[in-house]
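#lab-general

N.A. 3:47 PM
ok so I finally got the sequence cleaned up, no stray characters, all 562 residues accounted for. can someone with queue access submit it? mine expired

B.Y. 3:52 PM
send it over

N.A. 3:53 PM
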Amino acid sequence: MTTTSTVSTSGSTSYLTGTISGLDTDSLIEAAVAQKTARADTLDAKVTANTTKISAYQSLQSLLTDITDSLSALKSVAYSSLSTSGNAFDEKSAYLTASDGSDATDVIAVSADDDATAASYAITITQLAKAMKVASTAQDASAALGVSGDFTIGVEAGTSATIAITSDMTLTSLAAAINAQSGTTGVNATLLKVDDGDYRLVLSASDTDVDIQVTDNSGAAQAIGLTDTDGAFANVLQAAQPAIVTIDGLEVTSASNQLTDTIPGLSISLLQATTGQTITLDIEPNYEDVKTAITDFIDAYNALRDFIDTNQTVGSDGTVADDAVLFADSILRGVTKQLSGVLGQSVAAADDTVSTLASLGITLNADNQLELSDETTLDNLLLENLDSLQGFFETKFTTSDSALKLLKNDTSASLSFTLDVSVTDGAITDVTVGGESGLFTVSGNRIVGASGTIYEGLSFALVATQSTSIDVSLQQGFADLVTTLLNSYADSSTGVIQKQIQSLNETNAALSDKSDQIRDDAETYRTKLVQKYSAMEQELYAAQVLQQQIKAILGSSSDDDE
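B.Y. 4:20 PM
back already:
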């Protein structure tokens, strides 16, 4: 029996089945299509390699950012007058010591702001500030008071409110009525159970050192035993009083137990009175945060070093490991070389005591990783020479005119120069250095280093009413040097790495489009081949049918001859 071939489809791909020729047409077609898609396979492999490289660049970007983040607590703060933030060197800590060896934190609690002055204070607490409390006579909390009338309630020099009592009100509902006005009056009401059937209405001032005042307009307050016949409170449980504190021999009186403006930069909470003891309060730099920032930098750098080693290692057989994605990469090589240079150099802003990392007790080990090899040296600098340590990390900016503010420092250059500022009709019209124009651009009150000059990356603000000359000195510190360098690579918008990632993404998009087109063309080619082989099979089928017909005719003729 003779069968003809048919074309079947699976998904979007066509196949030829039931061939007459006996040829493996599927294999022939697949081989031909594979030749067409080989180029697409190559492009796809490039996309995969680029995607792997993008991931490696993102890891490098993250590691560099970790280093700059660790140094943010050590680098210079903005010099603008608008800046309100400091760094770890500006932070202060409060240390408390009781003269009798007891726990001083049971007596006072202290928090220090960055602007607190390093100093020592001797503190004794004579008394704590207290809120006034008064009570009524005994009442049944659930029974009707049987009293009608009203009274006003408030605190001295505050706002009063009128409280109306009806005969069916209970002590509980009266307390609720008073509390409904506490936001206005500054007086709170509670019920104190003395015994079964014996409850007292207790009024408490919200603030310390302020008297509660009640004006009994109708005798209702007296009727419930809150006031006496003279209008005075019948039962004063606690009189209002101020806090009395002695600081360095000077007596300080406060209406509150929170001393927030007694010593600038300090917030002191009084917890209990001292009894024959003196609390010593020492305000000192926050040494722990400075040291933590330094050790965080060491850890962040070593994490980067591990990444560098992974991507630079060559096996003993001369081969490069699969995970060395950035082997011989120019960006990795560049940042490694430049960062190593900064780590080993002396810092312009530093003094002779601390000018290199080695001066801090930080050295490179045999694996090129940083280690705190001499922690005693660092601890001594923290405790005895913090200024030199700060000078190593921070950039020094000085100017002969305090009106000139440094807004931006994105340069690694240490510079000393004189700005000659020309002012016309109250506006800055030109800025020159050594008689040369074009080194800075002017926009209103902003003076910006021109692109391509040694001043690029610097930005100043100046309000000037007349032409002037200003001497400027900028000596870069270690933290700013490293941060500026790494930001040029790791910045998520303008960094070298981000630009390379963007370029690879664009390349991948183009390669993927090209690969897709090649595969689309290959499928079109497949369809044509299927149609071609199908047509051939159809012709073979027709020839086979014709052959069978001829044989049949010839066979019939032979029979007739007999």
